[in-house]
Amino acid sequence: MESLSSSFSKGLKEREKTLEYVISEALQIPQSQVEDDLEYRSISEWDSMGHVNLLISLEEEYGVTIDAHDRSKLLSVRDLRNFLMQAENKDSNTVEIVGNETKGYSEQKQTISRGLVDVILDSTEITYIDGENGLLQYRGYSIHELVNNSTFEETAYLLMFGSLPTSVQLKDFDQELKKARNLPEPIIDLLISMKEARPMDALRTAVSALGNFQENSLKHDSLNNKISLLSQIPIIVAFHNSIRFNRELVMPSEKISHAANLLYMLDGKIPSINVEKVLNKILILHADHGSNASAFTARVVTGTSADIYAALTAAIAAFSGKLHGGAIEEVLTMIKEIGSPDNATMYVKEKQRKNEPVMGFGHRVYKTIDPRAKILRETAQALSEEFNTTIYFEILESLVSAMRPYIKKGVNVNVDYYASLIYQLLGIPQDLFVPIFTIGRIPGWISQIEEQKSKNILIRPKLSYTGIKNQPYRPISDRNHIDSEGF
Ligand SMILES: CC(C)(COP(=O)(O)OP(=O)(O)OC[C@H]1O[C@@H](n2cnc3c(N)ncnc32)[C@H](O)[C@@H]1OP(=O)(O)O)[C@@H](O)C(=O)NCCC(=O)NCCS
């Protein structure tokens, strides 16, 4: 380390600008403040935006590339210095670059991957994602081909059975889906009892309860039950929506498509072909997305040999959070809060100041634009123009401009960004955005549950213990001082 340090110092001397100088310029702070112990977010100038500027300056000054993985580790002046030293010495192989955060733990070293970042859980034959190049394929078929040529029913078949159906297979599948459009009475009663519940909470509870009322309840994972789930989940969402607004239930139709039936049950009107197409497209784009938090949850539950209702209930719970599926609802709140395209820059600054994420941006896997967002942007624009109401679309576009520095660092628009606006344009109530996204995601979860079962293994990572060890137990009478932060 000593020799690296001196070699880097020599490198520094040879440069016109010292590291301290580059940092002080990027963060707009005095050089005297730049010490090794100075940490990201320890001063107001080194906030998220300052960080982006700083990393860009370092890349320009030192000719290094700082990728998303490096970025998460560069959190102090010391980290930056070490990173640049490693970059300088990379060719001579004097430094071992560890691919993950490495923590000292007693005598041994353990590699911790917080948030399971970059951990490959297993192999899959369902969905291919290339996060660097923004590619997404279901069973080898590009989502672009599918949104242009397929239907939700056909895509669900593709995901669940592994190949595109023949016309006879698709007809049979469609018939089965239509036949399954009904709900057991006790589930309707349960929905009535949850009249005041948030739609996503009611959905989670109803799916959990559904397992108790299925005809094939002893064979929970039968094909019939999987097909029923695809048809019943939209009915749960639509019925609960009618119940909470004291409206009569609109019984499902067996004559129209999955997408059209969903919209029909929500407002009693058969949608136009165009609107049906838009919902089809969006449901196709929601249908699967690799081992995201909810699919991973479904796999964890399946890994214990629990049944499909348990796995889907857990997946729905994971999906509801605003960092995952819940973001789609938050995007519309954000659009309303911004109010005008002119306010977008201020909004981003305010978010930076509060150190809060801008909704609809960022993704664990994509380091470029989410390919689903690219498709949905076109749809959102076309629909806004068709409905002659473009203000929300303009706000989104202005926000994209205001987010340029983030986009340069790989924090780009994700699927929720334009999908939120499309749902709003389709007249869907805001708190149904996440349940409807969920309806789209069911084929993906079912397929992943099946794949997990086909080569099952209990999923059980470890934790690295960092607490105190070998404490002597003291009787309560001896504990007369407060030695913990308990209540
Ligand atoms: C989706 C999300 C949770 C991914 O998180 P992640 O992979 O753990 O990435 P991180 O949160 O570590 O982000 C890496 C960096 O990008 C920044 N970033 C990520 N998403 C951001 C966003 N939406 N707005 C502003 N900055 C963001 C982080 O602040 C972090 O910066 P830092 O390195 O200076 O601390 C995150 O991007 C987010 O919260 N997005 C908003 C919610 C959303 O739209 N979710 C739907 C996802 S499909």
UniProtKB/TrEMBL annotation:
<dbReference type="InterPro" id="IPR016143">
    <property type="entry name" value="Citrate_synth-like_sm_a-sub"/>
</dbReference>
<comment type="pathway">
    <text>Carbohydrate metabolism; tricarboxylic acid cycle.</text>
</comment>
<keyword id="KW-0808">Transferase</keyword>
<dbReference type="GO" id="GO:0036440">
    <property type="term" value="F:citrate synthase activity"/>
</dbReference>
<dbReference type="GO" id="GO:0005975">
    <property type="term" value="P:carbohydrate metabolic process"/>
</dbReference>
<dbReference type="InterPro" id="IPR036736">
    <property type="entry name" value="ACP-like_sf"/>
</dbReference>
<dbReference type="InterPro" id="IPR016142">
    <property type="entry name" value="Citrate_synth-like_lrg_a-sub"/>
</dbReference>
<dbReference type="GO" id="GO:0006099">
    <property type="term" value="P:tricarboxylic acid cycle"/>
</dbReference>
<dbReference type="InterPro" id="IPR019810">
    <property type="entry name" value="Citrate_synthase_AS"/>
</dbReference>
<comment type="similarity">
    <text>Belongs to the citrate synthase family.</text>
</comment>
<dbReference type="InterPro" id="IPR002020">
    <property type="entry name" value="Citrate_synthase"/>
</dbReference>
<protein>
    <recommendedName>
        <fullName>citrate synthase (unknown stereospecificity)</fullName>
        <ecNumber>2.3.3.16</ecNumber>
    </recommendedName>
</protein>
<dbReference type="InterPro" id="IPR036969">
    <property type="entry name" value="Citrate_synthase_sf"/>
</dbReference>
<dbReference type="Pfam" id="PF00285">
    <property type="entry name" value="Citrate_synt"/>
</dbReference>
